[in-house]
Amino acid sequence: MNKLVKGLALSVVASSVVMAGGYKIPEQSINSMALGAAYVAHTTGADTAYYNPANMAFMANKQYVEGAVTIAHLPSNVYSLGAFSGESEVENIAIPNFHYVANAMGDFRWGVSLVAPGGLTKRWKTPFQKASAEEFTLKIVELNPSVSYKILDNLSVGAGVRVVYSEGIVKSNGAQLSGIIGNPRANIARDMEGDTIEFGYNMALAYKPTSDIDFAVTYRSKVDLNEEGSATLLAGGQTVYKGDASVSVPLPAALNVSVAKTWNDRFTLELNYERTYWSAYKALDFEYGGANIGPLTPVFDAPIPRKWEDTNTFRIGATVKMDNKLTAMMGFAIDETPVSVSHLGFELPDSDAKIFSMGFKYQQSENLSWGAAFLYDSKESITVAAGENTKVNPSSFPAGFSEGGAFLTTVGVAYEF
Asked: Bridge-partner residues for 216, per DSSP?
């Protein structure tokens, strides 16, 4: 388990890469990207193993495999406050995914998914922002094997194991800060790295009251990311501490309730409600192997209140099967941020968002299909009043965050045999 940061990265930054408040990336396939993750009740491909394993019981008795790559383009976040203004670096990140569903074994069936359910890179080069967030990079990879069991012809359940690996980097550097503003971060720096492997579970229920209506409930457990690694802390260019470091942050639990209606086997409309339990994230508290880091304690060792709030996300997705082997999809979502203005940081200047998505699949042959999807995550601008959050606004004037968000493009291929 190498050095610490994933926790910090995870804790402060992880989500926003793309698409959900906090540090989640719910879109992990062509269909889910095109539908803005309104893809729980009516799942049809190999990605069913991840989004609703209970639905594997209703799939045709053959094998399904699917793979895709998402390119996430993250524009700059713009911070505006006179001499302290700055822009974060533009990021381009590749996010792969893979899904497989096996043949049925009586009323049982199994599948497996390899996804990247969260992550982010946020970097600042301007002095004021760099002092707390020169770099926050987070990578999360999840292996999720799952099984389903058909209880009745129209009722099934599913469950899986979440095997989560994460790693990250956290850097801050206040060397340029002392000439601009008197600040406890002036002339101090940190360099952290870390990783961990943790476990959780997921459960699902699928019910088909009629042949054209699908109802589903899914739940993903909280996974406590107990990061262990090392850190180097410096003051005035001199090393104050170099050694072990640890931190624990939650990857929150999430509940999805979804219903879908299909007309004439051609048009499907799905409504999805997601509740994410971010309130488990109360504080960020680093430990340094029992060592006393002296004058750096107030900056690097004091617990940082997070006090995130549980959030609601509302999604709607539409799927249209056409006569020319094309299937068109589109989606829209309203996504709440768990972060209040008083707890914002340069690591994650998160805000409420509206999500727009669209895509298609083309049936090349009886067994082979391919497609592409595009998603735009539009973040709201944020105003930080004087005295509301001195970490990001030490002045007597209002400050603001704008732009940011994300543009996601996914391409992939699916095969059935």
From this structure: 206, 258
pLDDT in tens, 252-298: 899 999 999 999 999 999 999 999 999 988 887 778 887 777 778 77
Residue carrying structure tokens 């359940």: 157
84 pLDDT higher than 50: yes
Write the single-letter amino acid at 356: F
- How distant, in Å, are the alpha carbons of 34, 56, 209, 213 from that of 260? 16, 16, 11, 6
Distance CA 4, CA 74 (A): 25
* Residue showing tokens 């056409």: 322
Segment (H or E) for 114? strand 108-115
Buried b (16+ CB within 10 A) or exposed e, 379-412: beebebeeeebeebbbeeeebbbbebbbbbebeb
Domain boundaries, the chain: 6-416
**If you write DSSP's letter for every residue of 77-97 in order, what string do you get?**
EEEESGGG-EEBPPEEEEEEE
The whole-angstrom separation of Cα 350 and Cα 340 is 9
Give, in words, the CATH class of 6-416: mainly beta
**Which tokens belong to 352?**
């409420």
Tokens of 138: 């987070």
d(CA 72, CA 355): 14
Nearest to 369 by CA among 318, 312, 314, 325: 325
Q: For 9, which DSSP code?
A: H
Q: Which residues on neighbouring strands pair with residue 335, listed in sequence order?
A: 313, 353
In the numeric block, the tokens 């042959």 are attached to 365
Question: Residue 228's pLDDT band (boundaries 50, 70, 90)?
Answer: confident
C-alpha–C-alpha distance, residues 307 and 109, integer Å: 41
Distance CA 53, CA 395 (A): 51
Q: Give the pLDDT band (50/70/90) at residue 179.
A: low
What DSSP element (H or E) covers 216? strand 213-220
- Which of 46, 37, 36 has the alpha carbon at shortest distance from 67? 46
Work out the end-to-end distance of the chain between its first and last CA atoms, rounded to an integer number of angstroms. Answer: 40
Task: Say if residues 41 and 258 touch (Cβ distance below 8 Å).
Answer: yes
| 256 alpha-carbon distance from chain centroid | 15
Q: What is the mean pLDDT of residues 78-96?
A: 92
Q: Is the pLDDT of residue 158 over 90?
A: yes
The residues facing 69 across adjacent strands are 96, 411
CB 235 within 8 A of CB 19: no
Q: In 3-state terms, what secondary structure has residue 280?
A: helix
